[in-house]
Amino acid sequence: MSLLYRILGFAAFLVILASTATFAFGLLVVGVVVLSGVGLYRYYRLKKNFKNGKIRSKSKGYSSGEIIDMPVEERNERKRV
After folding, report:
1. What is the pLDDT of residue 75?
2. pTM score, two decimals?
3. What confidence score (pLDDT) does residue 58 get?
4. What CA–CA distance (Å, rounded) separates 21 from 19?
5. What angle do CA 48, 51, 57 make, to 5 degrees?
6. Whether the predicted pLDDT of 51 surpasses 60
7. Which is higher by pLDDT, 53 or 25?
8. pLDDT exceeding 70 applies to what percent of the chain?
9. Exposure pattern of 47-71 as b/e (b: 16+ CB <10 Å)?
10. Which keywords annotate this record (predicted)?
11. At 12, phi and psi to the nearest 5?
């Protein structure tokens, strides 16, 4: 009878191990699918907005080509004693 319990215990352990591995793999697959979906959504949204002209330039420069001439500040830095 002891041998039967050992075999059943080992079989239960293998079932628990297999179900844990399957759950972890399924969770990994769901994460990959969700991240891929988000990436595709962002890609197509960016592509659609670019066609409609809603995307602004991310550069800090002036897109019109205008040159802004600002007067130079003169600083008088003398050491005071």
Report:
1. 72
2. 0.50
3. 54
4. 5
5. 100
6. yes
7. 25
8. 69
9. eeeeeeeeeeeeeeeeeeeeeeeee
10. Membrane, Transmembrane, Transmembrane helix
11. -65, -40
What integer is the mean pLDDT of 49-67? Answer: 59
3-state secondary structure 13-79: HHHHHHHHHHHHHHHHHHHHHHHHHHHHHHHHHHHHHHHHCCCCCCCCCCCCCCCCCCCCCCCCCCC
Q: How far apart are CA 47 and CA 57, in angstroms?
A: 14
* Amino acid in the structure at residue 71: P
Distances (CA, A) of 13 to 7, 22, 26, 27, 64: 10, 14, 20, 21, 70
Structure tokens at 78: 């003398």
The label of the residue with tokens 């005071």 reads: 80
Which pLDDT score, from 0 to 100, does residue 70 have?
73
Amino acid at 28: L
Give the pair of three-digit tokens for residue 25.
């793999």
Q: Hey, what amino acid is at 63?
A: S
